[in-house]
Amino acid sequence: MNTKHFQKRDSSPQFKRTPQRLAILDYLKGNTSHPSADDIYRAVSKKYQSMSFATVYNTLNTLAKSGTLRELTIDPKRKRYDPDTSRHHHLICVLCGKIVDIPEGITVDLPGKLARDFTLLGNHVEFYGHCSLCTRKGKTS
Amino acid sequence: MNTKHFQKRDSSPQFKRTPQRLAILDYLKGNTSHPSADDIYRAVSKKYQSMSFATVYNTLNTLAKSGTLRELTIDPKRKRYDPDTSRHHHLICVLCGKIVDIPEGITVDLPGKLARDFTLLGNHVEFYGHCSLCTRKGKTS
DNA sequence: ATAAATGCAAAGCATTTGCAGTAAA
DNA sequence: TTTACTGCAAATGCTTTGCATTTAT
Q: Which of these, A92, B25, B86, B106, has the minimum number of CB atoms within 10 Å of its CB?
C-alpha cells in the first residue's frame, strides 16, 4: 500500500500519521483476507488497546475516499475492505463468507448503446460458490 | 415471474397466497428498477395500507430463498431486489444509485486452479460509473 | 497555534425476531 | 383444524455522528 495520501498538498486536507492510522495500515498491508471493520477493529485493538470503532470507520472511509483502499460490497452482511487497489475480481463462498482474489484480468465490455450513455469508471466480477473446505465439511447453508 | 413457489409439495413448507404477497409479487412483476425493501414497502403500502415492514422482509426473504427473486449486493447502503432471475449483469451510477440491467450474456471463467477448488454457482458483473443524467447535472458526489 | 484525529456514547438506518392474533389451506 | 402469515414493537447489527479532548503538524 502506498502512502501518497499522507503527503501534504496545497488546498487539500492533510492526513495525519497518527499511530492508530499507522496500525490500521500496517494490519492491512498485504492482507488478502478482505476483513470487515469489525475484523480490523479486533485485530488492531490487540496491539493498540485504546482503539475505538469510530476511529476504525473514520480511517477506513478516509482511505477509501483517497483511493488507498477498496470497499467491497460482495458480502451482503457488511462491508469488506481490500488494500489491493489493482484491477482484480473476487470469489465468495456463500457458505462461510470467505473471499478470495481472482488475480487475472478479465476483460468485460459494455454493450455499445449503454457505453455511450454512461461514463464507465470500472467493473468488478463476483463469483459465487462453495469453497472446498465447506464442501468437505458437508455444509449446506 | 413464475409461481412455482406456491405449489404444494410434500415435505416442504407450503407458501400461502396471501393478498400481501400477491401485492408484492404484482409490484415486482416486470419491474426493472431494482427496488430496495423500503421502495417496495412504500409502493405496496399505497394499495395495501396495512402492509408492514416485517411482511415485506419476510416475503422478500422467502422469495429469494425459493429462487423467485435475486438479491443484489451492488448498492453498499441496502439490498436491492430483482425479479429477473435470468443471467444478467448490472451497472450502477455511483452518483444517484440508479441500477440498470445489462442484458447481454458475458462469459467469464475462473482460472483453472481455483475452478478445481471451488464449486461455482454463478457470477455477476458490476459496472460502476456516472449515468448521463448525473453527468448533465454536473454532479460530482 | 492550528487544524485535524481520537474516543466515547448516542443516534441512525437497514434488517430481523418474538409473539399474539388472524387467515389460508 | 392445522399450519403458516401478518403486524406490531422490540431487538439487533452495522455504520455514522456530535462533541469535548488530545495530538500531529
A: B86
